[in-house]
Design brief:
Elements lengths: L5 E6 L7 H15 L2 E5 L4 H4 L5 E4 L26 E3 L5 E3 L2 H15 L3 E6 L1 H14 L2 E6 L15 H22 L2 E6 L6 H9 L4 E3 L7 H13 L5 E6 L11 E2 L4 E2 L2 H11 L4 E5 L11 H19 L5 E6 L2 E6 H6 L10 H8 L8
Parallel strand pairs: 1-2, 1-6, 6-7, 7-14, 8-10, 8-13, 9-10
Antiparallel strand pairs: 2-3, 4-5, 11-12, 14-15
This protein binds 6-O-phosphono-beta-D-fructofuranose.
């Protein structure tokens, strides 16, 4: 095992709260070992473009307020096209697979990197690990996604903050809903997973949570609202995960046909036609923002410390995970065999929601 002198760190895929905390923790952990850290900009693009786009990281880069901010100080990329690169000056360039491998290999050699820490989804890790193998350097992955459906881990960076943001939004919407005796339909991110919608519905005291994993009926939803009215509740919070389908089996998309948006309007229109005083709210990218909550800061820091330990032990191609209350690690190839983890319809959160009388479907 050659001795590590310098490592790289990058963020890849959609941003979320806690990424700067993870970058900070990687930097502080590496400095503790006497290693240098280079932050690569715009996911792997920073290593592909010429001149390369990176910065040497030191403790002073994390003076207030950077580590406490959402987003990623290194920039990221989720364009879906790994061949299309953005240079530091904003101009673009498209490369072939072979050119990408060559640029990556030359880039890590020129920067003197022995390893790369990838803070991203499993898709990003799979792609970067291919380049790292070709370049002969180690890679460790740290999972992040506000959707919390990353394979192999009970928690990913960003989820706990997103859950707090949605809870806070529900608290705010509750006051206006109560004042107007309205039904507020609130659309929550999560792509094909309902973790965020379900858990925020519990913490935000919602009446309904519709999630992609559990079939619902429009009649079931209406019955729940009428039952609330009969029991003296004059307003309601209806949380809908952006990835649910209409009863006709259709997803609602906006923009490019692959971004979920608009299912709350569909639900609100139906309710309005049935005489409910209703408004729809799409919370959108605000859910990815804000200062990371303590839980995300601790998770990101713990993941980073384990990643540095793994590199110090000479490990390669591992993903740091949080399982059964402990930080652990698993081979990336094993992680890639596991499917994304949706809400378990028989799981604890579903039982809690049902125990509270929240309508979540299946009748
Ligand atoms: O995967 C994270 C996520 O925020 C999803 O919940 C959402 O559907 C998607 O990303 C939005 O992606 P974009 O930032 O490309 O609009």
């Amino acid at each position: 095992m050659s001795e590590i002198k310098r490592i790289g760190v990058l963020t890849s895929g959609g941003d979320c709260a806690g990424l700067n905390t993870a970058i900070r923790a990687i930097t502080f952990g590496a400095l503790e070992k006497g290693w240098e850290v280079y932050g690569i900009h715009n996911a792997t693009d920073g290593l592909f473009v010429r001149p390369m786009w990176y910065q040497k990281l030191s403790m002073s880069d994390f003076n207030f307020p950077f580590a406490t901010l959402g987003g990623t100080m290194l920039g990221t990329n989720n364009s879906g096209n790994p061949h299309l690169l953005t240079r530091e000056d904003g101009t673009r360039e498209e490369l072939t697979d072979n050119e990408l491998i060559q640029r990556f290999t030359d880039g890590v050699k020129e920067l003197g990197l022995s390893a790369l820490v990838v803070i991203g989804g499993d898709g990003s890790m799979a792609i970067v690990s291919k380049y790292c193998k070709a370049a002969g350097i180690s890679m460790i992955g740290i999972p992040k996604t506000m959707d919390n459906d990353a394979p192999g881990t009970d928690l990913a960076i960003g989820f706990q903050t997103a859950r707090s943001v949605v809870t806070d939004a529900l608290d705010k919407l509750d006051t206006t809903a109560t004042s107007h005796n309205r039904v507020m339909v609130v659309e929550v991110m999560g792509r094909g997973a309902g973790h965020l919608a379900l858990e925020a519905a519990i913490s935000g005291f919602a009446d309904v949570a519709l999630i992609p994993e559990i079939p619902y009926t429009y009649e079931g939803l209406v019955n729940r609202l009428r039952q609330g009215i009969a029991q003296g509740r004059k307003h309601a919070l209806v949380v809908v995960a952006e990835g649910i389908k209409t009863p006709e089996g259709k997803h609602c998309y906006a923009l490019n046909g692959r971004t979920f948006s608009g299912v709350s309007s569909w639900v609100a229109e139906k309710l309005s036609a049935d005489g409910f005083n209703v408004r729809a709210n799409v919370l959108g990218h605000i859910q990815r923002a804000g200062s990371p909550v303590a839980g995300d800061r601790i998770l990101a820091s713990s993941f980073a410390v384990r990643a540095i330990e793994l590199l110090a032990e000479g490990k390669n191609n591992r993903v740091v995970i949080y399982k059964d209350g402990h930080v652990q690690d698993k081979d990336l190839d094993e992680i890639l065999k596991i499917a994304n983890t949706p809400v378990d319809p028989q799981g604890e959160m579903v039982k809690i929601a049902r125990g509270l009388g929240i309508y979540i479907g299946e009748n």
